[in-house]
Amino acid sequence: MVRQSLIGGDYALINRQTLKPNPDYWVSWLWGKLMGENVFQVQSNDPFVQTYCHSAKKEGKCTLLIINMSASPKIINCQEFGLKKKRFEITADSLTSKKIRINSVRPKFKQGKVKLKDFPKLSKLNIVSSIQHQLLVL
Fold this sequence. Notes:
Order of helices and strands: HEEEEEEEE
């Protein structure tokens, strides 16, 4: 992940005053853990739902990223992708919130590390809550 700030901008992954990760840090962290290099074409028929599909880190699997930009939950039909194995949701109280949750838990470093298994398993429902990113490992 390469980012830059224009003069006077604050676009960093780490808050320069508190040294705590900004929400984009956790989005990038989860992306790095789940998304592979191969990109597949997918689309949503809902203008408030953006979808992306990549190969997963494990060979033979894929990861579907769903972003719900609406204020209400959405039901997503993912039947063409087979059975879901894992589901991760990144949620926040608002689009400008400095604090996020992954699977309803605030991410925290334990001995300098964070692992996917630190977050509880979610049900495999085809519902995407409002204002969130959801990563499905298929």
